Amino acid sequence: MKKCGKSRLWAAAFSVALSLQPWAPARGDEPRSPDPLDPSDPFAMDRLFVPRWRLTDGPQVRAAFRDVVAPAAAATVSIHCDGKHSALGGIVRSDGWIVTKSTPLCGKLTVVLPSGDQVAGTKIAESREHDLALVKIEAKNLPTLDLTTTDVPAVGSWLASVGRSKDPVAVGVVSAPPRKIPPQSGVLGVELDEERPLVVRVFPESAAEAAGLKAGDLITSVSGANTPTRAKLREVVGAFNPGDEVELHIERDGQP
Fold first, then answer.
1. Which residues pair with 112 in a beta bridge?
2. Least crowded by CB within 10 Å, which of 130, 132, 160, 208?
């Protein structure tokens, strides 16, 4: 099976090359163009003009992995928050249990199945350390991901990123062994003064905007921890995880 996959990959790569640089047959006494794949021609590959990325992650290469990702793609869903796409998820049980990324989830959850059907979802649990969430929908007999806890891909193995289309989103190669990634730190979504915890700008669609912060506000404490300087504020906020709720004390127009 693996050998067949490699053969299809190379065939796809060369089909890209040939489609980009057609060679017309010689007519009359016109000199015949050399075969672009003739190994005796030192400039053969230069004539192909194939960008390197197309030989590793081009559309033909992704299509070569179509059969490989098909079972996983059939169990991949799109999760919308308040009507907007927020994350992809994988069905892990046929009765509607879905694993997805935790951080983007907020508001009303709607799960779009591979069939196109839309079903209301409920976040049941989450792991902030791993930024994962478990979502439940009312459904039966759904296709599921074939998960494994024992096989670790070796460095150099092919890796295909699954989306909702029949082709993978991207194809690459495992370049490093498994390692622990530190959890993300919390952020408010503001630009601060160079030294003081003074809000210079509030970024749109951020936690700070949702909390009602405005430019000119001075943040004096976060959940009981005093923040006399910009550095201290960053330290205190960074100790929280994305999604944590914090209590801010501010001064606005000189008034607490």
1. 78, 118
2. 130
* Right CATH for 190-251 from 3.30.460.10, 2.60.120.10, 3.60.9.10, 2.30.42.10: 2.30.42.10
Whether the CB-CB separation of 23 and 36 falls below 8 Å is answered with: yes
3-class secondary structure, 121: strand
pLDDT tens digits for 156-196?
A: 888 888 888 888 888 888 888 888 777 677 788 888 998 89
Pick the closest to residue 222 from 250, 184, 198 (CA basis). Answer: 250
Burial class from Cβ neighbours inside 10 Å (0-12, 13-18, 19+) for residue 73 reads buried
Residue with tokens 């879905």: 98
Please report which confidence band the pLDDT of residue 74 belongs to, taking 50, 70 and 90 as the band edges: very high
- Residue written as token pair 């190379």: 10
pLDDT at position 221 is 94
CA separation for the pair 79, 162 (Å, rounded): 15
Enter the tokens of residue 12: 């796809």
What count of other Cβ atoms lies within 10 Å of the Cβ of residue 126? 18
CA-wise closest residue to 206 among 214, 216, 217, 197:
214
211: tokens are: 């909390």
Tokens 């969430």: give the residue.
133
List the chain domain ranges.
190-251
DSSP 25: P
CA dist., res. 107 & res. 113, Å (int): 19
